[in-house]
Amino acid sequence: MGEQSFTAMAGAKAEGEVPHLGIGMLGYAFMGKAHSNAFTKIPYIMYPPPAIPDLVAICGRNQEAVAEAARRYGYQRYYTDWREMLKDDDIQIFDNGTPPDMHAEPSIAFARAGKHILCEKPMARNGEEAGRMRDEVEKTGVKNMIGFNYRFVPAIRQMRELIQSGALGRIYHYRAIYLQEWVMPHYNLPLIWRLDKEVAGNGVLGCLGAHIIDLGRYLVGEIGSVAATTRTFVTERDLPDGSGKAKVEVDDAFATVVEFENGAIGTIEATRFGAGRKNHQVLEVNGEKGSICFDLERLNELQVFWVDDEPKETQGFHNVLVTEGYHPWIENWWPHGHIIGWEHSFVHEITHFLDCIANDKDVAPLGATFEDGYRTAVICDAILESAAARKHIDIKY
């Protein structure tokens, strides 16, 4: 199916020849859990695996919490300082699952040490910081990937394959929304790190918007310009330690019109103030021959419309269950109709990265490299600039 087999196992070595790659994980919370779950499943689900991930070490600042994470996830040892973990010669892959303010320095250090880097999104707090990270991995030559895991949802990969094949013809529109509700006033959240500009760099733009900006580039093509507005609805929050209040300097919501270099236009919107919305990501691509729509909360499905469908009396959107053995990755899972979930995107994503390392393949275009992370960061900067200046901004890398 196109650029690379959906089954990352193609051409895999015999079981006895499969290499082992040691994992050093920085961070043990949300992404540490998601990635560790994937590393554990890969050897027996994505079989035969391109490499066996060995859970060598996990690192975090809180000794009690990181020790418990090591026991829970199955890491051989733990560290409370990433600089000490850097000295561990059993580590070949550095997995950075920390907040954005901790992405650049550790990732650059591990790249200089010759370790392959998997870094969670957003890649950095701004385009300049992301550019330094990108430049470093290019100099060292290590394999690098940014954790845009939605590229590895079977239905989204199927969307890309249909678009790339020309089945939709000329692309007219990309429409993406990503809505959540968890920072709304009734949750009484203090100024957690995701609302702290010094740590996160920006707000919902990097947290949710980066995903659907990346998917726009992945599905449709390069973005040429943006015209945006942003809003911070709660401008002051309690400090986490209860010592007072502080100003919120990041965006709660944004909306932007985008122009793609290929002539398509789009709208991209994200908020953490969408009452009732838990993880509502919806993508729609309209072309001259049809349309495709995806809803993350119905992860195994696509809504597809074809202009030339016959008979006309029953023409309309069709619901496609993306669970057949010929769909991306499904042959590694269950019989058709037995759905998979959000966590399985990480299994596919990390398997791809292991395959690229073990068999010296390119991470791009199917995986997001540091170049992709950098370009998304530059687009995020342009959205903020556009909102502040109230004008169109051309994207310049």
Describe it.
With 397 residues, the chain is of the alpha/beta class. It has two domains: 15-149, NAD(P)-binding Rossmann-like Domain (Rossmann fold, 3-Layer(aba) Sandwich), CATH 3.40.50; 152-341 and 369-389, Dihydrodipicolinate Reductase, domain 2. It has ten helices and 17 strands. The strands form three sheets. A nine-stranded mixed beta sheet has the order 16-15-14-13-7-12-11-8-17. A six-stranded parallel beta sheet has the order 3-2-1-4-5-6, sandwiched between helices. Helix 5 (127-140) links the parallel strand 5 and strand 6 (144-146). The longest helix is centred in the C-terminal third of the chain and has 20 residues, at 370-389. The radius of gyration is 21 Å and the shape is globular. The protein starts with 19 loop residues before the first strand and ends with a strand. Residues 1-15 have low confidence and may be disordered.
Output the keywords.
alpha/beta; Rossmann fold; Dihydrodipicolinate Reductase, domain 2; 397 residues; six-stranded parallel β-sheet
Brief summary:
With 397 residues, this protein is of the alpha/beta class.
Dominant shape: globular
CATH fold-level label of the largest domain: Dihydrodipicolinate Reductase, domain 2
User: How far from one another are the termini?
Assistant: 31 Å
Instruction: Give a short account of the largest sheet.
Output: 9 strands, mixed
CATH C-level of the largest domain:
Alpha Beta
Radius of gyration: 21 Å
Please report which band the strand proportion falls in: under 5%, 5-15%, 15-25%, 25-35%, 35-45% or over 45%.
Answer: 15-25%
Average pLDDT = 95
